[in-house]
Amino acid sequence: MTANTRIPITELLAKYEDSLIEIGYSYTTRLLFLKQADFIIRRHEVKGLGYIAASVIEEYICEINQRYLEGKLQKRHYDRTMREIERFAAFADSGQKPVTPSSPLKGTRQKLSSEFGQLADNFVAGKFHPNTRCDVRWAVYKYFSWLESQGFSNLEGVGASHLQRFLLDCSKRYSPSAVHNIRLYLKKLYAYLHVSGIAESDFSELLSFTVNRERKVFPSLSKAEIAKLLDAIDRTSVKGRRDYAIMILGTVLGIRACDIVSLKLSDIDWINGEIRVIQSKTSVPVVLPLTQDVGTSLSDYILNARPRTEAKEIFLRINAPHTALKAAVTIGEIYRDCCRAAGIEASKRFHNLRRSLGTSMVSNGVSVYDVAQVFGDRNVESTKPYLAADTVHLKMCALTFDGIAPMEDSVQ
Fold it and tell me: Are 28 and 46 in contact (CB under 8 A)?
């Protein structure tokens, strides 16, 4: 391994994608590889590194091993992740191209007809987040493949009854969460097909049913943990001032990581004391109060630590080039480093700060509908999990054992 064969972080993802295309990996497989590569790159950018470092890779591998030992990763997922890390690290260090896929389909399990394949690729190429695009493509390919098994080579003659039969078949094979996603992506697909004039109907009413999914109650940080997290940040350094402002936005206002990344200087109305955010997840605009602690932390970073650039985004990379933080996962890495410094479990996610705020508001008597309005949730169902985390009021709902006499043991 020599210095002149290593690829700089800023060029790595684009060159890696070019290499995957040159070899012949399918679109879906490339998305999976690039998702893992992008995650590794963000870990390096957070640490201010310009090249892939063995120490960072080893740290990441240790985390993957720990998750596998704790039963949080299945063997199949674990093996695939390790292969992807090894493949990408080898390319980053020496420019070594990944191995050519052995499958004649080059990673694609379903081979569609040219017409269905073109429709699917055009739809998937739309405005989907990289983390979602793989799931969208999987669902659409499943649907078109099923239509082909029913004798269709195009959408002519396909109606509501076929959609119902496909979804019924999915309900027998997949979990409720998977069926929910398939239903959602099909709704988006037919909206696209209808607007494009390819389908006569968007089947919006048919595809608007609710799927009852299992919902987990995720933990939130306690007030003591949040105080410990903020106190552990070194606010005398450039990085510390930036990280502290980010943590305050999550703690006090509950702003999502994806929205913090895209937050611009023009989004802050200093005169009226407001922060205006168009949420990336819901596209719902939200106006939040510029509280004193939020305003102080932001002004301290902007005036005393933020690099002088023409970038419109508030939060920038510490090292040159001082560009905007590119992805929400970067905020997650910053949060994880802050947790480690505070001695808090590092596996907790940045979204826990938003969850903690929502739980605190509900515990203090704020209506779940008011919380939904503050958070910009389009559906109150997204806010209801905060009720499940409100242990104080849940205890008030618990029934006593009064009037229930224990059975006497007849056997002496």
Answer: no
CB 118 within 8 A of CB 37: no
Q: How far is CA 345 from CA 229, 305, 332, 401, 410, in A?
A: 11, 28, 13, 37, 50
- Looking up tokens 């699917």 gives 120
Joined tokens for residue 372: 């939904």
Q: What is the DSSP string of 225-245?
A: HHHHHHHTS-TTSHHHHHHHH
3-state helix, strand, coil in the chain (%, to 5): 60, 5, 40
Q: Tokens 């596209």 belong to which residue?
A: 283
The pair of three-digit structure tokens given for residue 286, joined into one six-digit string: 């939200």
Q: Is-cis flag, bond preceding 321, omega within 30?
A: yes
pTM, two decimals, is 0.56
For the record, the structure tokens of 352 come out as 């826990």
Cα gap 73→252, rounded to integer Å: 33
Q: Tell me, what's the pLDDT at 106? A: 35
Residue pair 312/265 in contact by the 8 Å Cβ criterion: yes
Q: Quote the tokens at residue 265.
A: 């200087």
Bridge partners (DSSP) of residue 289 are 274
CB atoms within 10 A of CB 203: 20
Identify residue 26 by its one-letter amino acid code.
S
Work out the angle at residue 161's Cα, subtended by the Cα atoms of residues 155 and 167, and round it to the nearest 5 degrees.
Answer: 90
* Distance from the Cα of residue 127 to its chain's centroid: 15
Say what the pLDDT of residue 150 is: 92
Nearest to 187 by CA among 203, 163, 200: 203
Specify the pLDDT at position 16.
87
Output the CA–CA distances (angstroms, integers) from residue 376 to 110, 130, 285, 311, 404, in the order listed. Answer: 39, 23, 7, 27, 45
> What are 304's two structure tokens?
């005393």
Query: Quick one: pLDDT at residue 408?
Result: 61
Nearest-10 Cα torsion for 239, 327, 291, 288: 170
CA 308 to chain centre: 30
**Residues in the chain with pLDDT < 70?**
1-5, 28, 95-110, 129-131, 213-219, 346-348, 364, 368-374, 376-412
Closest C-alpha among 152, 138, 122, 198 to residue 165: 152
- Give the strands of the sheet with 274-278, arranged side by side: 268-269, 274-278, 285-289
Contact present, 196 and 126 (Cβ < 8 Å):
no
